[in-house]
Design goal:
The protein is an alpha+beta fold and 301 residues long. The chain is built from nine helices and nine strands. The strands form three sheets. It has a five-stranded antiparallel beta sheet with strand order 1-2-3-5-4, with no helix packed on it. A two-stranded antiparallel ribbon has the order 6-9. Strands 7-8 form a two-stranded antiparallel ribbon. Helix 2 runs antiparallel to helix 6 and helix 8 packs antiparallel against helix 9. The chain is globular.
Length: 301
């Protein structure tokens, strides 16, 4: 069906993505609405909806219709409208996500090994390479956040000598606070377009420790411990071979590296002045990132 066949009564902008693509709420009458997203030929979102998400419980917005427009016209994806969404960093919500996450991390990835699924951020290996090649810049940067340079030097030794486990799992890819919500007691997880194969720690870091400019949160070390323990419990039920002690060490190493890389990225955004986030949002994100770094790096050194 062409988009014109839907005969929308009105259209309102919800948000504009980092790539400039606009997402709208569209109404076919006064009461019934859908979410209209442009189809991005470089995105695997449609492929993921057709090949990955059918194995999942109904925790994501349904894809109602789409057009890939091979004739050069603008393609589009039409999703069910879940309504006005709340995004809160609450432990109870995060616990539900953790339980589901342990399940999808245990799904078989055999059919996805040859796919072109790719995350939107550098891999852990690439992050460590960036940090190792920017050592003097990193040392200068962390001093402005009152982070002891000796901690950085110790972390660099770990980065050079330690490798994370080779295990890869199916990762949501962008599981920050803005990408999950509750509606009438039902958990929904949004924006699956960045699904890729990665470490278990990727999704956990985004859920627990990643500060997002649009959704600042007060990081809670007690939550981190409880959420990680809950994940280990659920994951070991599905895979008894998981070593909880190694897992916690690797999570904190991964989180420390990610946070340090993120501090570099935030500084670059602040200096370039071309970020979609305001200076105040970036400053808050930097403070939260530095705090998260301090909490996790002490657990792995």
């Amino acid at each position: 069906m062409g988009i014109e066949a839907w005969k929308f009564l009105k259209k309102e902008l919800i948000y504009r993505g980092l790539n400039g693509r606009e997402v709208h709420r569209v109404y076919i009458n006064a009461e019934e609405s859908f979410i209209l997203k442009p189809f991005n030929p470089q995105s695997l979102e449609l492929w993921i909806y057709e090949h990955v998400l059918p194995a999942f419980p109904p925790i994501y917005p349904k894809l109602v219709d789409y057009s890939t427009s091979p004739l050069g016209e603008d393609g589009w994806l039409l999703f069910e409208d879940l309504g006005l969404l709340q995004h809160k960093y609450e432990e109870a919500w995060a616990q539900e996500v953790v339980c589901l996450m342990a399940w999808w991390h245990n799904l078989s990835i055999d059919d996805l090994q040859q796919s072109s699924l790719k995350g939107q951020k550098p891999t852990y290996t690439n992050m460590t390479a960036i940090l190792l090649n920017s050592k003097s810049k990193v040392l200068s940067l962390v001093s402005s956040h009152n982070i002891d340079c000796m901690l950085i030097l110790e972390l660099y030794v770990r980065m050079e000598k330690e490798k994370l486990s080779d295990e890869q799992v199916l990762s949501h890819g962008d599981l920050h606070v803005g990408n999950y919500t509750h509606i009438q007691g039902q958990l929904y997880i949004l924006d699956w377009e960045h699904i890729h194969l990665s470490h278990r720690y990727w999704d956990l870091y985004h859920l627990i420790d990643l500060p997002h400019p649009q959704y600042p949160k007060k990081l809670a070390p007690k939550w981190r411990s409880r959420l990680l323990d809950l994940y280990i419990e659920k994951a070991m039920h599905l895979d008894p071979k998981l070593d909880p002690h190694r897992f916690l060490y690797e999570y904190n190493l991964f989180a420390s590296v990610f946070s340090l890389w993120l501090l570099l990225l935030i500084e670059a955004d602040q200096m370039n002045g071309n970020s979609p986030w305001s200076g105040e949002q970036l400053s808050v994100q930097a403070v939260e990132t530095a705090k998260s770094f301090m909490e996790t790096v002490k657990e792995c050194l």
